[in-house]
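Example for tutorial group B:
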């Protein structure tokens, strides 16, 4: 391995940045788009902490514990991925865990303005924290947790948008009239 952490293997190029990255979000619920981003991040960074924001101003369909359970199940097969929750400022959490990178997903230009503002605000608070944007497979660019919740609430098909265990939980919620 070279000193800058980039090494060539016979099967191809592997980039190991030896960095801890956090991937914060509401994950209400986790979708295949989020999972696509987590997989990409786990291939780039040595440690990825999927970080559930618990005190966001958003009202959520799933409780903190439910969302954590789904995150754990979705990431169980990824050895360098951990799940955590935080309340408060994301920069504070990044400091606590020694993360210097924050991963965010960019689906379309419409995401950009908000994400750009957040990235610069976060870096203003913690200059060592950079935001890295990853783009999911095109088939997930129109996918969001809110659209999935809405389709599920009306009894529509969501199997290609979320893992089976998330689909089951969404169906249970809509049967309970939530
Ligand atoms: P937040 O409330 O922080 O936006 P979300 O759970 O909605 O939380 O999203 C977390 C991150 O995942 C954000 O960076 C968002 O842009 C990204 N994301 C959401 N859905 C997708 C998707 N389908 N493909 C790629 N990234 C996504």
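The residue assignment follows.
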């Amino acid at each position: 391995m070279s000193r800058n952490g980039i090494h060539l293997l016979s099967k191809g190029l592997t980039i190991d940045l030896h960095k801890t990255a956090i991937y914060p979000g509401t994950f209400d619920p986790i979708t295949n788009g989020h999972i696509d981003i987590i997989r990409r991040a786990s291939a780039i960074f040595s440690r990825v902490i999927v970080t559930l924001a618990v005190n966001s101003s958003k009202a959520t369909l799933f409780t903190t514990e439910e969302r954590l359970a789904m995150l754990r199940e979705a990431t169980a097969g990824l050895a360098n991925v951990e799940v955590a929750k935080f309340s408060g400022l994301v920069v504070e959490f990044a400091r606590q865990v020694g993360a210097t990178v924050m991963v965010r997903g960019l689906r379309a230009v419409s995401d950009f303005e908000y994400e750009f503002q957040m990235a610069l605000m976060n870096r203003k608070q913690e200059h060592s924290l950079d935001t890295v944007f990853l783009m999911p497979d095109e088939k997930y660019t129109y996918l969001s947790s809110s659209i999935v919740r809405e389709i599920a609430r009306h009894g529509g098909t969501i199997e290609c948008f979320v893992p089976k265990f998330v689909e089951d939980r969404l169906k249970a919620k809509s049967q309970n009239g939530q």
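The chain has a mean pLDDT of 90. Compare this with the pattern of hydrophobic and polar residues in the output above.
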